[in-house]
Design goal:
Rossmann fold; alpha/beta; seven-stranded parallel beta sheet; binds 2-amino-2-deoxy-6-O-phosphono-alpha-D-glucopyranose; three-stranded antiparallel beta sheet
Length: 241
């Protein structure tokens, strides 16, 4: 894993954007894996700025999001569908039918997991996957203990994850208990991965990732088995390295 350290979050977002845009310039029909959470929003802002200033086009890009809450409709402001439209899709020239997110309201959720996994494969797999990390090491919504050979599946969210994400909801009770997430093996199939780590609250997670052994108890450690991962971390996140 290659580690790029930046002085602050703004620089992290800018550097990750420069690298992402270079992949899009190299391959105008890139399959781009996307993440939600606060961390990638700065990157998305930089992509929007670049699209407006330099006309980088997303007309042939397909995007694949990592995860979605179960039981929240696409129109709900807490859905990841809504989040992605608001933070990125509405502001670039990507046709919405080329943006793909698991459907957390599907009648048959197991079938939806299979469909999503197959759908990504039919599109030729993900060229570049953007990832954040949870304080407990989760990637996507793969909580500690998720098998490394997992494919897109339904996950029970850890209490700590629900608490961390309750900041977006009216109350903790409103945070869904389950989500659909790409599995660890699905993520590892990506040809390249950018992991964004920002802030003091992620310092322990980054230190565990860099210093400890590979273990299913710390999902992000699977990335050590991947040959093409770049970690973008700001100074606060590297405090314990
Ligand atoms: C969420 C998302 C993850 C994200 C993580 C960290 O639960 N499912 O994809 O990486 O938590 O979020 P944040 O960037 O807001 O700290």
């Amino acid at each position: 894993m290659k580690l790029i350290t930046t002085s602050n979050y703004e620089k992290l977002s800018q550097q990750a954007a420069v690298e992402t845009i270079s992949r899009i310039k190299r391959n105008s029909s890139l399959n781009l894996g996307l993440a939600t959470g606060s961390t990638p929003t700065g990157l998305y802002q930089e992509l929007i700025k670049d699209h407006k200033q330099n006309k980088t086009s997303y007309k042939e890009i397909n995007t694949f999001n990592l995860d979605e809450y179960i039981g929240i409709s696409k129109k709900d402001s807490n859905s990841y569908h809504y989040f992605m439209c608001e933070h990125l899709f509405e502001h670039i020239d990507i046709p919405l039918d080329q943006t793909h997110i698991p459907d957390g309201t599907a009648k048959d959720l197991d079938e939806e997991c299979k469909r999503y996994e197959q759908f990504i494969n039919e599109h030729g797999g993900i060229d570049l996957q953007i990832l954040g990390i949870g304080q407990n090491g989760h990637i996507g919504f793969n909580e500690p203990g998720t098998p490394f050979d997992s494919r897109t599946h339904i996950i029970d969210l850890a209490e700590s994850t629900r608490k961390a994400n309750s900041r977006f909801f009216d109350s903790l009770e409103d945070v869904p208990k389950q989500a659909i997430t790409m599995g660890i093996a699905s993520i590892m199939d990506s040809r390249e991965i950018f992991l964004l780590v920002s802030g003091a609250s992620k310092a322990k997670a980054l230190a565990t990732l860099m210093n400890d052994d590979i273990s299913e108890d710390f999902p992000a450690s699977a990335l050590k088995n991947h040959g093409n991962v770049t970690i973008f971390a700001d100074k606060d996140a590297t405090a314990l390295l």
